[in-house]
Structures are given as structure tokens and as C-alpha cells.
């Protein structure tokens, strides 16, 4: 169940091809078609398309009863203009694979190549290419799709490349791995007035001035101790770009972030209470909206042990490391299976995810594929 040098060359070429054709969350139509084309060449037992929108599930079935191990990667890219100049630079203006999902897909394709040559002895291995991770909608859509019942994984495994961690070294811990997060939009509505007579209107200025620092002050704990709470104001707007009108409308956008879902519920209550009090004190109406809601990602101890045993067998160094402040909707699969995600080091000086100069390190492909193949062999034979 190993990859040849020729495999690695072709997987690298394919990764770079995917890099040229990025599609953002919910728009991964051509990416999904390319995945189906490439994975068909591995001779799978079945491919399901259109899962949760554009998702693709590729099955390798032993034909003998046993567990189902699902390995997941993401299809989507980001709305970021690529500033680097690789030969395989994005051909789509304003869109790019700046989080490495092209490399994650190539890693799964490597797993598929090996499984196509030698099926597991028992059970099934399923490779899931999930849509819309970046906006938090994809995993929920996959789980809500009636067809997902045909997958029914016992174990769900995944990885994310991690700049800042030594190349090829892995962080993997039990418990909280990725934070819960959500975007909050606080909408304050009053009444405009002539700037010479502001007292005749109802301005949100004082409420905005109070809320912005107060929201940012909702911060405590760390990911290491599992009690992180962070609020980050990301955008604010008030009134119109004119000097003759006192404002009657404002919006404040912020990201709420916590280590766990329970902590998120408490932070939501604190932020909403703060917004209500500021609105009432200033005679404003209040509306609160949420977007890009991610649950926490909790590594199951048994699933994490499967990955640790695989890394030991493959000679991949690892340690618990830290949780990841950024969010990941992979955690939703923990509600239907034993799940775990590892962080595979991309190099201590590698550009960070979402940086416009980022590019996935191709040499991670065989490392990641080797870990997953060993995990499948250890679990299914």
C-alpha cells in the first residue's frame, strides 16, 4: 500500500494543476469534476457525486464486513489574489488555494492510488472531498445530505498542513483541536439628523464607541489550556460619507472564538447582552445576525491513537503540540463517528495560511498519504 516515485511525481503535477483552477466555497463544480476524473483512474468500487452540493466520496470496499474509515479533504479555495509567482499560479483573478486544500486533495488521491492496487482486508475506506470548508457550510451540508447514510463512517480522519511547525513533524492532541467560531453582525438603527442639529436625531456613535473596545476586551484563556475566549472586531461602518448628516445607522462585525461549543454559548450571551444594553442606553433598535458558524473540533482519543500508531510505524515524529485557534468544520463529523485531525508541519518559516504568498509544500503529499494508508491498514488490515 505504498506510493511509487512515479505516483509522487504525478500527484505533485496534479496538485499544481488544481492550484491553477481555484474555486471558492459552494462553487467547486470544476474542481469536483477534476477529482472524479482523477480518482476514477484508481479503480474505486464506487463514487458518489453531488454530496452536500459538490462533494465527492470515493469508496474502496473489501467486500467483507468491518469498520468504515473515512479520510476527508477539502475542495474549496479562498477569495484571495495570489501574489506569489510559481509556474502553477492561479489562473482565476481574485481566487487562490492559499490554505493548501489543493495539497490535501492530492494527499487523498495518493491514498486512493494505493487502495486501488490493494483493497483493505476488511471493511471500507472512503475518501471524502468535502465542499465549502472555508465558510463553515460544507460539513453540515454533507451530513444533511440523505446520501451520507451510505457512508456511515466509524472513524473520520483528516489533516491540515501547518506552517510554523517543523517540516514533516506533526501536532496531534486529544480533546479540543480547533476552536469554535462565528461571525457576529451588530446592527444599530436610530434616526439621521442635520449635522448642525444632531440632537434632533438618534445617533449610534456613542454605542459604537462603547462597543468596539468592549467587544475586543472579551478575551481570556489560551488554546493550550483549552479555555480560549477571543473577540476580534473586524469591521465597522456608520452613517454616510458626508459631513452634513449625523448618522442614524451603524454596523459592527466581529469574530467570536472559543475552545469549545459550551464556551461559545457563554460568549454569545455576553456579546449579545453588551449590544442590547448599549442599544437601549442610546435609544437605538438592535438586530443581531450570525454568519460562518463553526463548531469546535474535538479529537477522539481512540481515533487519535490510530493516527499516532500510524505515525510511529511510518517514522513520522509527533507531539501533542497545541490546539489551533482557527476553526474547521471537520469537527461536525465527530457527531457521527470517532474523529481526529492532525496538523502536519509545513516548515517553521513557511508563509502562513491565507497569506497571498502561500503555496502548499509538495513534499508533504507522500508523508500525509503514508500516515493515512498506515492508519487504514492498521484498522482494516
What does the secondary structure layout of this molecule look like, with pairings?
Layout: H1 5-20, H2 29-40, E1 46-51, E2 55-61, E3 68-74, H3 101-117, E4 124-130, H4 138-144, E5 155-163, E6 170-171, E7 175-178, E8 180-189, E9 193-194, H5 205-216, E10 229-238, E11 245-246, E12 249-258, H6 261-281, E13 285-294, E14 297-299, H7 301-314, E15 318-319, E16 338-347, H8 364-380
Parallel strand pairs: 3-4, 3-5, 5-16, 6-15
Antiparallel strand pairs: 1-2, 2-4, 6-16, 7-14, 8-12, 8-13, 9-11, 10-12
Helix pairs in contact: 1-3, 3-8, 5-6, 7-8
Kindly describe this structure.
With 381 residues, the protein is α/β, with parallel strands linked by helices. 30% of the residues lie in helices and 27% in strands. It is built from 8 helices and 16 strands. Strands 1-2-4-3-5-16-6-15 form an 8-stranded mixed sheet, with helices on both faces. A hairpin with a 3-residue loop joins strand 1 and strand 2. The longest helix has 21 residues. The termini are close together. The model has no long low-confidence stretch (mean pLDDT 97).
Index terms:
381 residues; alpha/beta; 8 helices; 16 strands; elongated
Uncertain runs are: none
Counting DSSP H or I runs of 4 or more residues, the number of helices is 8
N- to C-terminal distance: 11 Å
* Main sheet overview: 8 strands, mixed
- Can you give the helix content as a percent range? 25-40%
Number of strands: 16
Structural class: alpha/beta
The strand order across the widest sheet is: 1-2-4-3-5-16-6-15
Amino acid at each position: 500500500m505504498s506510493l511509487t516515485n512515479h505516483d509522487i511525481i504525478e500527484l505533485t503535477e496534479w496538485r499544481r494543476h488544481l492550484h491553477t483552477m481555484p474555486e471558492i466555497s459552494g462553487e467547486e463544480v470544476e474542481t469536483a469534476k477534476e477529482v472524479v476524473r482523477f480518482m476514477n483512474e484508481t479503480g474505486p468500487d464506487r463514487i458518489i457525486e453531488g454530496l452536500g452540493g459538490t462533494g465527492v466520496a470515493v469508496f474502496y470496499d473489501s467486500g467483507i464486513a468491518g469498520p468504515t474509515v473515512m479520510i476527508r479533504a477539502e475542495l474549496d479555495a479562498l477569495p484571495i489574489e495570489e501574489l506569489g509567482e510559481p509556474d502553477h499560479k492561479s489562473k482565476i483573478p481574485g481566487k487562490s488555494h492559499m490554505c493548501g486544500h489543493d495539497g490535501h486533495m492530492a494527499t487523498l488521491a495518493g491514498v486512493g492510488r494505493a487502495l486501488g492496487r490493494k483493497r483493505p482486508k476488511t471493511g471500507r475506506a472512503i475518501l471524502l472531498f468535502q465542499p465549502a470548508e472555508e465558510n463553515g457550510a460544507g460539513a453540515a451540508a454533507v451530513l444533511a445530505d440523505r446520501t451520507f447514510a451510505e457512508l456511515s463512517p466509524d472513524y473520520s480522519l483528516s489533516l491540515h498542513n501547518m506552517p510554523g511547525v517543523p517540516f514533516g513533524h506533526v501536532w496531534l492532541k486529544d480533546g479540543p483541536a480547533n476552536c469554535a467560531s462565528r461571525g457576529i453582525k451588530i446592527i444599530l438603527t436610530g434616526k439621521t439628523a442635520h449635522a448642525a442639529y444632531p440632537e434632533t436625531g438618534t445617533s449610534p456613535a456613542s454605542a459604537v464607541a462603547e462597543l468596539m473596545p468592549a467587544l475586543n476586551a472579551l478575551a481570556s484563556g489560551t488554546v493550550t489550556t483549552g479555555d480560549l475566549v477571543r473577540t476580534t472586531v473586524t469591521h465597522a461602518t456608520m452613517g454616510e460619507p458626508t459631513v452634513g448628516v449625523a448618522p442614524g445607522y451603524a454596523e459592527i462585525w466581529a469574530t467570536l472564538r472559543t475552545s469549545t461549543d459550551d464556551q461559545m454559548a457563554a460568549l454569545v450571551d455576553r456579546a449579545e447582552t453588551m449590544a442590547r444594553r448599549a442599544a437601549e442606553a442610546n435609544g437605538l433598535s438592535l438586530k443581531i445576525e450570525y454568519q460562518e458558524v463553526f463548531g469546535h473540533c474535538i479529537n477522539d482519543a481512540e481515533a487519535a491513537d490510530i493516527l499516532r500508531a500510524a505515525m510511529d510505524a511510518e517514522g513520522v515524529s509527533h507531539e501533542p503540540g497545541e490546539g489551533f485557534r482557527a476553526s474547521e468544520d471537520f469537527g461536525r463529523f465527530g457527531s457521527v463517528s470517532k474523529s481526529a485531525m492532525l496538523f502536519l508541519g509545513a516548515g517553521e518559516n513557511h508563509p502562513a495560511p491565507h497569506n497571498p504568498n502561500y503555496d502548499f509544500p509538495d513534499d508533504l503529499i507522500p508523508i500525509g498519504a503514508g500516515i493515512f494508508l498506515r492508519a487504514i491498514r492498521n484498522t482494516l488490515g
